[in-house]
Each structure stands twice: as structure tokens, then as C-alpha cells.
Amino acid sequence: VQLQASGGGLVQAGGSLTLSCVVSGRTVDSMSTAWHRQAPGKQRELVALITSAGITNYADSVKGRFTISRDNAQNTVYLQMNSLKPEDTAVYYCRALQRATNYWGQGTLVTVSS
Q1: Both ends of the chain: CA-CA distance in Å?
Q2: How far apart are CA 19 and CA 79, in angstroms?
């Protein structure tokens, strides 16, 4: 399983970005997939998750602002991020869990300016 993340960039506070994670090797609806982030000097944290059944879960800090979704035809998982805050600045990683094995994509940097 390989994951390719993209979509990061520089945005002003209050703005929006959409991250994409293209998955190859397995279909996205056969796995749980998630977005994590790691800010400078902090541990990596779970941001949002979508199970193979389509159930979603979010960190409290992003509830109501971020939406995780997937496109089975494109085999891609998305993270729509609205109302961005400077504290959302981090490297964002996508992850897939398949048969107790985690697969990680490379990170994509999101910088939110105040």
C-alpha cells in the first residue's frame, strides 16, 4: 500500500485548504484511513479518521471545521479544512490501516498565518 499526500500550502487565518491522499495497492473503502498532523516540537496527533464502513471521527480541536471524506472511484481520501487557525500549522500525514499494518504517506506542510 502506498499513499501520496498533497495540497498543503500557506493560507491566512480563516481560510480553507483541501488535502488529498491518493492510495494505491488497496481500495480506500477496504481500509480505515486517517489524517494526522505534527506541529514543530509536538507529538504527532490524530486529526480525523474514516473507517471502511464510512464512520468518521475527529479530534476535538477540529470538529466543525474539518471534514474527512473519500472518493472510491479516485481511490483518494480528502481532508477539507475550513476556518483555519494559526495553531493548525503542521505537517499533515495520511495513514491507512490494513490488517493491523499502518501505512504512511509523506507529509504535506500546512502553514496558517495570523
Answers
A1: 37
A2: 5
Cell of 12: 491566512
Greatest CA separation for the chain: 41
Tell me how far apart the alpha carbons of residues 111 and 48 are, in angstroms, rounded to a whole number.
18
Q: Cell for 1?
A: 500500500
Chunk the chain into consecutive blocks of 10 residues (it has 114) and report each block's average pLDDT, rounded to whole numbers. 97 98 96 97 97 97 98 97 98 95 96 96
User: What's the one-letter identity of residue 105?
Assistant: G
Burial of 53 (0-12, 13-18, 19+ CB in 10 A): exposed
